[in-house]
Structures are given as C-alpha cells and as structure tokens.
Amino acid sequence: MTHLAKLTFKTVDRSTKRDPIIARRDKLVAGLKEQKLVHAAATKKQDHRAERHKWMTNDMGERVLVKTHRTVRPWFFAQDSGWYVQCRYGARVIAADGTNNAVFVKSLDEVAGVLDAFLNAAAAGELDGAITKVAERQPRIKPGAAKAAANA
Structure pTM? Predict the structure, then answer.
C-alpha cells in the first residue's frame, strides 16, 4: 500500500471572492480605529505617526526595505468655537445621516464619543449604504461634453 492511498482526494474550486460590502466595512472600521489613536495623540498635543514599510535604493544600489513614518491626518478639526468630526472613506467624506457630513461637539474630549459611535455604527453595518454611495466612482464629465449634451 502506498502513502498516497491513505489520503482522501477531492476536486474543489476555491472561492477567493470576498463580499465587497464587508471589505468596505472592514476598511472603514480600521480607519476609525486609527482615528482613535490620532485623537489620543491630539489630546496630548502630539502628532500620530503610522509606521509603514517602503522599498528604497541605498547608496550601493541595492533595494532594501526601510521603515518610514507617515503623519495621519485627523478626521476632526476646530471651527466655530467647537470641533467638527467627519467620517471618511478614503479621501471622501461620508454623509453618515444621509444629508450632513459632520458632527459638531463642543470640546476635543467629546470627539472620542463621536468616533466610538461611528465605529459601532460601521461595525453593525449601519453605514453600508453611505459607504457604497461614496465608493462608487462618479463618471467624469469633460467640460466640452456638457455643452454638447445641452445643445443636442
């Protein structure tokens, strides 16, 4: 008896597709967790820097992996004698309630509560519709095409 005869063989097609809604939700949750770290650094009056790895060429011409830091931009800012908190997906701002794009709070300490609320809402799937709307690519309209469509 051979060694392979003891094994059970089957033919299977591996499914590598991931639900895009779940993938977007996970991306937003990761961004919100990072913003909580940004808020913690802001309360200490520091910048939050995230470590990333980057391939660079050194003096001898070799490609080496280098650790660098990037500053993470906060999703909250001071204005109108208070703080505005926005929820972002990539570079785009999400209209979390459907119409407004920011939450206003009186102090920097209250920003953490808003970030927690966004995090819980994203994890529960409450922001899936808003994320899908923002994630869809808008068709670019060329300046001359708008005139041509209006004249036609």
Answer: 0.75
Residues 104 and 96: their CA atoms lie apart, in Å, by 13
21: left (phi over 0), alpha (psi -120 to 50) or beta: alpha
Residue 151's alpha-carbon distances to 27, 29, 30, 68, 148, in angstroms, are 43, 46, 47, 53, 5
Residue count of the chain: 152
> Which region among 90-99, 100-109, 116-125 has the lowest average model confidence (pLDDT)?
90-99
Rounded to the nearest 10°, the torsion over CA 51, 54, 56, 58 is 40
Contact indicator for 136, 36 with CB cutoff of 8 Å: no
CA nearest neighbour of 47 among 56, 59, 35, 38: 38
pLDDT digits (tens, 9 = 90+) for 107-143: 999 999 999 999 999 999 999 999 999 888 778 777 7
